[in-house]
Amino acid sequence: MNDLKATRLISTRNALKAYLHGEQEYDYFKTVSQGAAPILWSATSTLLRDKGGVFVEDSNIGKEVGGDSTSKFGVRPWSIDAQLAERLWSLGEKLTGVKFDI
């Protein structure tokens, strides 16, 4: 089994650990291979064909959660807000004095 397939097992294992501890989620540290897996998955997954700007989490497309969520996981509304992204981009250009024409 390669590391990309193993990450799904790891996610399942962590969900089981959380359940056994009476928690919704299990907090853990990743190995180097586990940390690299979402990058490799993003570069090779057919699920991302013709999609851009998605949040990848544990080798899958992250799920949107509410801004008041107490979860350690998930995509918060402000991280995918196009207007906030534009404001941040403009601020970055202003602070650095570098203009990017995209």
Structure, described:
The protein is mainly α and 102 residues long. Helices cover 45% and strands 0% of the residues. It contains three helices and no strands. Helix 1 crosses helix 2. The longest helix is centred in the first third of the chain and has 18 residues, at 3-20. The protein is extended and about 50 Å long. The mean pLDDT is 83.
Q: Outline, from the CA principal axes? A: extended
Fraction of residues in H or I helices? 40-55%
What average pLDDT do the residues reach? 83
Rg on CA atoms, Å:
17 Å
Largest sheet: none
> What is the strand content?
under 5%
Question: Helix-strand pattern, N to C?
Answer: HHH
Helix/strand class: mainly alpha
Please work out how many helical segments DSSP would assign. Answer: 3
Number of beta strands: 0
Write the layout of secondary structure elements.
Layout: H1 3-20, H2 32-44, H3 82-96
Descriptive terms for the model:
mainly alpha, 3 helices
Short structural description:
With 102 residues, this protein is an all-alpha fold. Helix content is 45%, strand content 0%. The chain has helices at 3-20, 32-44, 82-96.
